[in-house]
């Protein structure tokens, strides 16, 4: 990031069949701890999509999961969206990446489409407590999933 904070990103990149092959990027930017909360649940989908020619990228929002920095005061701030835009710009610079960016499940109307307002009434239920407690945990230990790790 421009202030020197490092965000944690996981990329699953397909094996190119020929030189200069480019792949579209599927991008997820959330505060839900990509390395532990949903890791086992997400892996089959990630491998499925990667085998079919997509770069799958998961990024922990600032100060959540394995990302560094201080958590932004609230959701959907201009600062948070600027961080997301910065990550997209970095991904677009990858030599294997296609240039177009498509945002799925994005919304311009956060009030009507937000998890906290499913029926136009604010719901501050177990989600708020669980996400705050989960993000208070320390970051996941750094590890490499490589051939040595697989053999162990």
From TrEMBL:
Pfam families: Peptidase_S15 (PF02129). InterPro entries: AB_hydrolase_fold, Xaa-Pro-like_dom. Coiled coil: none annotated. SUPFAM superfamilies: alpha/beta-Hydrolases (SSF53474). It comes from Rotaria sordida. Residues 3-71 form the Xaa-Pro dipeptidyl-peptidase-like domain. This is Xaa-Pro dipeptidyl-peptidase-like domain-containing protein. One of its GO terms (molecular function) is hydrolase activity. The lineage of its organism: Eukaryota, Metazoa, Spiralia, Gnathifera, Rotifera.
């Amino acid at each position: 990031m421009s202030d020197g904070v490092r965000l944690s990103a996981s990329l699953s990149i397909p094996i190119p069949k020929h030189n200069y092959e480019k792949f579209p990027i599927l991008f997820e930017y959330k505060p839900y701890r990509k390395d532990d909360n949903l890791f086992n649940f997400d892996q089959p989908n990630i491998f499925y999509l990667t085998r079919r020619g997509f770069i799958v990228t998961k990024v922990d929002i600032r100060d959540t999961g394995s990302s560094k920095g201080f958590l932004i005061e609230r959701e959907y701030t201009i600062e948070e969206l600027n961080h997301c835009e910065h990550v997209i710009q970095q991904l677009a610079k990858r030599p294997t990446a296609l240039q177009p960016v498509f945002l799925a499940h994005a919304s311009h109307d956060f009030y009507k489409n937000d998890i906290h307002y499913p029926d136009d009434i604010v719901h501050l239920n177990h989600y708020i407590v669980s996400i705050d407690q989960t993000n208070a945990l320390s970051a996941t230990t750094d590890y490499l999933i490589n051939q040595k790790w697989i053999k162990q």
